[in-house]
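Q: I'm teaching a short session on how sequence maps to structure, and I want students to see two examples side by side rather than one. Could you give me a first protein with its sequence written out and its structure tokens following it? Keep the formatting plain so it prints cleanly on a handout.
A: Of course. Example one:
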Amino acid sequence: MGPMGNGTVVAVSRSGEHLFSKPNEAAIRLLAGLGVEGDAHCGVTVKHRSRVAQDPAQPNLRQVHLIHAELHEELAAAGFTVAAGQLGENVTTRGVDLLALPVGALLRLGDAAVVEVTGLRNPCAQIDGFRPGLLRQVVGRDARGRVVRKAGVMGVVVAGGVVRSGDAVGVELPPQPHRPLDRV
């Protein structure tokens, strides 16, 4: 599973409220510069409640949340049953190594939508409220002691469009040098 490989959209999800999990939909509409139409995190400025408290004017770099379905399989092997959308992602993909993408990578979703990857999702303690012990599964440390975040990536919508389950995911890497993703 290389970052260049084309993938597939497994599920799309959204929620108009700040709920931890998002229900699956047949289709979602991405709006350029805003995010997912009808989703609580849609907007030009930050919507994540802890960030709003710090500075409500900061730009929203977390308009769309994507998780690779392979994470759900990894979690299932560790005894945690998690379905698409339950970790709050808008788009669940298969076949693309999201965590290996550099900052600025473009994900082409379906016919028209393009999401620019801005960073890693930083999962918070809410995740243990959903399934106790899950936070340890999605945030760990590598052999060198560096924090590894596996709970997907965040991005901004650079071109709008409708995204449906079964759509293709194309990856376009930015010019070198590539910057590895960090929490955003």
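Q: Perfect. Now a second example for contrast.
A: Example two:
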Amino acid sequence: MAAATPSQRTPREVLEDHLALAAAGDWRTDLERNVAEDVVVLTGFGLFTGRDQVRVLAELLEAQLPGATFEYTTVLVHGDVAFLEWTAAGPATRVRDGADSFVIRDGKIAVQTIHYTVEVTDGDG
């Protein structure tokens, strides 16, 4: 059986692929495969539109949490809407309150909200 094309994937399949690629640190593939070209992302840092601006957000998260491991504590999908709660821990920073929401249409993330607070841990995890 042939692999599903992006528009044939369910929102859950898109989200699971997004999370797997994020865990692997492969946000470049994630952007191409799972994010709509005209995506809209709302964050505490402001409004970001399009893949190029989302790339900036991915680079920011990577810079804020170098070497971090992520744990997804809540993953919910209903129709084309998804919700994610997450934590992350790196050598000197952590996030305990990560929360994202998604609207997934035609096999791509069309809208996302992102919230998290980076805490400096001085290596205490």
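Q: What should students look for in example two?
A: Point them to this: The chain is about 30% helix and 45% strand. Also worth mentioning: Residues 22 and 108 are 15 Å apart (CA to CA).
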